[in-house]
Structure to design on (564 residues):
């Protein structure tokens, strides 16, 4: 899905000195500061992998007047048929920022956090620690003391038709209907949905539920839960094809009934149809409610639902439920590692005595610690310890590497440093701005006080966007850092086939994220600059005052090599 941009956001004058950009005149050339002569072979029109790649190369060459194919690129653009690539790129860039000699790389213009992180990671780490450290922490009046009664787990299952409709792994009772959806156009796009022909070994729904149940069995053995304890888990069912909701829910029910013997979980399924029924019952006259309360489509919808559902749980299922905690199904509580390296079990770490409290941040603002955030360790690294970043530092010469968008935009650098300094912080008394979608929680009190949500149009980094709705000038809702609450991330272990089908969508999703986060921040009551500063250093990369230009350059640079 391509996002067509109509309005280009000019870089504000107030940023000129900070970024070292000459904003007094337009710059039409990409030569030297972004594309050098050594890159010319990578942009040749004749050897492009397909027409989409050729169009991306031609668009870049419009701004490289010295390239031998510059004139041919002009002809290619003029004679090209309308389509999604040309619609997104447009015919040219109206202006380009130009770095001054003091800011030698494109990162200084388009991804300043990457420039800082790569050149001085120690200083960035220290600044992150300073910004996240809390003071005057006040514990909540009613912390979690009984997870069996007070905790609601949530998770999301993403499902698609079978990749192989004839597979023996499609349940016989569902095979005919599954085959019908396999040939239909896709409605919604996700990173790595579970196909209905996934074998048990690569099915993350089975994997995640069984591993969570095993972790709870260990809590029983330790005495943290009573022997017959069952904790509720609300699972949203998101589908790639509209109309597939009933099929997907029956598929998940079939999986649980035939492959699992859950002892400590009660699983409740919520597909889009069920969500509509809830809306019709609770607020039948609110036409907009169904757009917000649902699970299909943009990730922001199911993320918001899996938080807000706690209030529904209190009213209809368990009045004592006051906390909800979301996991992803490819994440595991490694109880042996948690006990050995932190001295606490998963539930003991979730029941953080400060979750729901209040504090003061580095700037003197009031912080409501009504949310909770843990971290991740990759399965391959887990044998070496929990505190190993799941996001490694990029190679330091990426800016000089072969021509890709990373020469221009490399959020992987601040993401890596933020992961080290923020997510893997070993001490208590810190808040989190950088979080992962799994390993996050919220209290019922925070939901009522702040009414946080992720806008339904946000399809990437929905976890990062969630708290933006609760950001005020002198106070805000934030995540308490749950030191030691680290889940093992087993995605590559069993879902490789699904993930392999998702790389292109993920790349497009990052461009969409840049455009939407920037526009959301621009419309936010605090203003783009304040939101960007609050999200520093990682998510701030996707909040840019010149997002339209940056998005087109990223698309063209990567499309020139990969095609469509």
């Amino acid at each position: 899905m391509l996002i067509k941009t109509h309005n280009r956001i000019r870089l504000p004058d107030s940023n000129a000195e900070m970024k070292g950009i000459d904003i007094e005149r337009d710059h039409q050339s990409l030569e030297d500061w972004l594309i050098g002569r050594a890159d010319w072979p990578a942009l040749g029109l004749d050897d492009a992998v397909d027409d989409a790649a050729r169009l991306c190369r031609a668009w870049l060459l419009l701004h490289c007047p010295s390239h031998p194919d510059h004139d041919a690129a002009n002809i290619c653009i003029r004679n090209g048929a309308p389509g999604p690539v040309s619609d997104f790129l447009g015919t040219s860039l109206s202006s380009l920022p130009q770095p001054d000699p003091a800011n030698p790389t494109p990162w200084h213009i388009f991804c300043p956090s990457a420039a800082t992180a790569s050149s001085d990671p120690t200083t960035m780490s220290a600044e992150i620690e300073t910004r996240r450290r809390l003071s005057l922490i006040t514990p909540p009046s009613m912390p979690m003391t009984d997870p069996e009664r007070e905790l609601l787990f949530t998770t999301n299952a993403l499902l698609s038709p079978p990749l192989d409709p004839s597979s023996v792994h499609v349940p016989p009772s569902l095979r005919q209907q599954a085959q019908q959806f396999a040939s239909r156009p896709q409605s919604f796009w996700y990173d790595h949905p579970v196909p209905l022909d996934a074998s048990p070994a690569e099915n993350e729904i089975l994997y995640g539920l069984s591993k969570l149940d095993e972790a709870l069995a260990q809590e029983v053995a330790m005495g943290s839960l009573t022997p017959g304890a069952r904790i509720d888990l609300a699972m949203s069912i998101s589908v790639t094809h509209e109309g597939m909701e009933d099929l997907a829910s029956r598929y998940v029910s079939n999986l649980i009934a035939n492959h699992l013997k859950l002892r400590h979980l009660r699983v409740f399924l919520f597909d889009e149809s069920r969500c509509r029924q809830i809306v019709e019952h609770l607020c039948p006259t609110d036409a907009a409610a169904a757009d917000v309360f649902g699970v299909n489509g943009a990730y922001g919808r199911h993320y918001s639902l899996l938080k807000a559902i706690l209030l529904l749980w209190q009213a209809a299922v368990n009045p004592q439920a006051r906390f909800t905690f979301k996991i992803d199904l490819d994440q595991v509580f490694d109880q042996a590692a948690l006990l050995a390296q932190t001295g606490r079990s998963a539930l003991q770490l979730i029941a953080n005595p400060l979750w729901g409290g209040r504090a003061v941040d580095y700037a003197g603002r009031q912080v409501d610690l009504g949310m909770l955030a843990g971290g991740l360790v990759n399965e391959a690294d887990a044998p070496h310890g929990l505190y190993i970043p799941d996001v490694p530092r990029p190679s330091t010469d990426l800016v000089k590497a072969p021509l890709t968008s990373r020469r221009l935009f490399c959020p992987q650098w601040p993401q890596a440093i933020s992961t080290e300094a923020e997510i893997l912080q070993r001490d208590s008394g810190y808040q989190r701005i950088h979080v992962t979608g799994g390993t996050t929680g919220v209290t019922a009190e925070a939901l009522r006080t702040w009414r946080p949500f992720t806008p339904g149009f946000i399809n990437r980094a929905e976890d990062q966007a969630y708290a933006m709705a609760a950001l005020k000038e002198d106070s805000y809702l934030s995540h308490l850092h749950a030191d030691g609450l680290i889940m093992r991330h087993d995605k590559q272990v069993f879902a490789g086939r699904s993930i392999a089908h998702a790389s292109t969508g993920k790349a497009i999703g990052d461009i969409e994220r840049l455009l939407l986060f920037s526009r959301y921040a621009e419309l936010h009551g605090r203003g783009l600059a304040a939101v960007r500063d609050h999200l520093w250093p990682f998510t701030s990369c996707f909040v840019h005052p010149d997002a339209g230009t940056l998005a087109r350059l990223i698309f063209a640079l990567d499309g020139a090599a990969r095609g469509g």
